[in-house]
UniProtKB/TrEMBL annotation:
Family affiliation: Belongs to the oxidase-dependent Fe transporter (OFeT) (TC 9.A.10.1) family.
Signal peptide boundaries: none
Coiled coil: none
Organism whose genome encodes this protein: Dactylosporangium sucinum
InterPro entries: FTR1/Fip1/EfeU (IPR004923)
Topological relation to the membrane, as annotated: Multi-pass membrane protein
Chief location: membrane
Protein name: Iron transporter
Entry GO terms, CC: high-affinity iron permease complex
Membrane-crossing segments per the record: 6-27, 34-58, 70-90, 111-129, 149-167, 179-198, 247-265
Length: 284
């Protein structure tokens, strides 16, 4: 549930930021009559995203065991692609997103009301579909079917509250740093989803090595312990993974995390300059 909460928080905050920027622009420019079109576009995007998630669940339920495992593997890999693209895109766009959105909305206003609704729809639907795929992929490892729903609901609710507080200027956070560190955590979450996808391929019999274990930490991390459950929910940690699962987790997680944090690692801390030498005194 922790991983799904983080997905809901991260994706939800992006959506609420987009919506709050659009709403604030219309309010400040005295165009409140266009707000209903923004909310119409947002509502339509939300309904389509929820419907897409439902279709994923219904479609997977009609498949055989091998087909379902293959479907879940594909969904996992698609989710990894989405989350990887999203965190790098957001790291680059966090500082200039507001200016670009305001510019696009101004262009849409010149076209007409439906263009405003369409602009709001397109701004939200991408995040909504990403959230649907990420939610479906991350929820496959949950033992309790209610946990994913609780996690995503709490994450989205937290995002809505943060978005409203930011809009009302009640709180101010450094969004660049927020997206940097939550992005780093999501890299580890994505590594776990990628590992789960490889496990699904092994379960489906497409990839060998299901019973060839890399290590066995079952004694130190009993599957029913709270800390093993926390690690499993957050990073898809399993105490007895196969060799290929371990290679997949490390092969994705380590290089992507390094590339994502590279701009931060390149920043050298400023050091105080040595004091300038005092000129030698001269005798009059």
């Amino acid at each position: 549930m922790t991983a799904i909460y983080l997905i809901g928080l991260r994706e939800g905050l992006e959506i609420t930021l987009v919506v709050s920027i659009l709403v604030a622009f219309l309010v400040k420019s005295d165009r409140r009559h266009l707000l209903k079109w923004v909310w119409s576009g947002v509502a339509l995007a939300a309904l389509i995203s929820i419907g897409f998630t439902t279709l994923l669940e219904i479609g997977a339920a009609e498949l055989s065991f091998e087909q379902q495992e293959l479907f879940e593997a594909i969904a996992s890999f698609v989710a990894v692609i989405f989350v990887t693209w999203m965190i790098f895109w957001m790291r680059r766009m966090a500082r200039r997103m507001a200016a670009e959105l305001r510019g696009k909305l101004e262009e849409a206003i010149q076209v007409g009301s439906f263009a405003v609704a369409g602009m709001a729809f397109l701004a939200v639907i991408r995040e909504g579909l990403e959230t649907s795929i990420l939610f479906y992929a991350a929820a496959q490892g949950a033992k309790d079917t209610a946990e994913p729903l609780v996690g995503i609901s709490l994450g989205l609710l937290t995002a809505v509250v943060l978005g409203w507080l930011l809009y009302a200027s009640a709180v101010r956070i450094n969004l660049t740093k927020f997206f940097m560190w939550t992005g780093a955590l999501l890299v580890l979450v994505a590594a776990g989803i990628f590992k789960y996808g490889v496990h699904d391929l092994q379960e489906a019999g497409i990839v060998p090595g299901l019973n060839t274990y890399a290590y066995d930490l079952s004694t130190a991390f009993p599957p029913d312990s709270w800390y093993a459950e926390l690690l499993r929910g957050m990073f898809n940690f399993t105490p007895q993974p196969s060799v290929l699962e371990t290679v997949a987790w490390a092969g994705y997680g380590i290089p992507v995390l390094v590339l994502f944090l590279l701009p931060l690692l390149r920043r050298q801390p400023k050091t105080d300059a040595p004091p300038a030498a005092e000129p030698a005194s001269t005798n009059a």
